[in-house]
Amino acid sequence: MGVPPGVEIADSEGAATAHATPESPPAVAAAPVRGGLRLPDEAQSQLDACVHCGFCLPACPTYRELGMEADSPRGRIDMVAAAACGELALNDPDLSLHLDRCLDCRACESACPSGVQYHQLFEAAMTQLPARRPWARGTVHPEGPAFAAAARLVRSGLRHILPRPRVLAFAVRLATGLPFLAQRLPPGPAALIPVLPRPAQVPGRRRLPRVVAARGECRGEVDLFLGCLQDAVLGGDNVAAAYALAACGYDVHLRGGQTCCGALHAHIGDREAVRRLGAVNVRTFAGTGRPLVVTAAGCGAVLKDYGHLLADTVHARAAAGLSKRVRGFAEFVGTCDSRPVAMPPAGAPVRVTWHDPCHLAHAQGVRREPRDILCAIPGLEYVELPEADACCGSAGVYNLLQPELAEGVLARKMENIAATGARWVVTENAGCLLQLRLGCRRAGLDVRVLSLAELVAEAYGVTAQ
Ligand code: SF4
Ligand code: SF4
Question: Of the CATH numbers 1.10.10, 3.40.50, 2.70.170, 3.40.1350, which one belongs to the domain with range 350-460?
Answer without folding.
Answer: 3.40.50
